[in-house]
């Protein structure tokens, strides 16, 4: 018989503090440069903001983001990253905290609805890939 614990309670996800105080936690995110792919940008932002390396595991979804600087909206994609290495020092270490939390805790500390939706999609994706005999 398997454990009674749900995947969302045992899965840990990485969140980082927002640059401005009081804005809660969020996932590494940002724009991409013209000389890189969207996935390369996701890897770069994860390194710059959270100090982690890993493998991008496909697009999780697409959301609209409100621009900080004006009234415009931008479309952004979310990529799950299987973290394989954490650095002790990274470019934004002095302005961001990095914290591993359960999915319910991430939903509590992330203020953006798209982040909560992304977490639900991630859990659904991972649950669908597990077989009853897996030991994940």
From TrEMBL:
Residues 1-123 form the Nudix hydrolase domain. GO terms for molecular function: metal ion binding; pyrophosphatase activity. The keyword Magnesium applies. Its cofactor is Mg(2+). SUPFAM superfamilies: Nudix. Keywords: Hydrolase, Magnesium, Metal-binding. Belongs to the Nudix hydrolase family. This is Nudix hydrolase domain-containing protein.
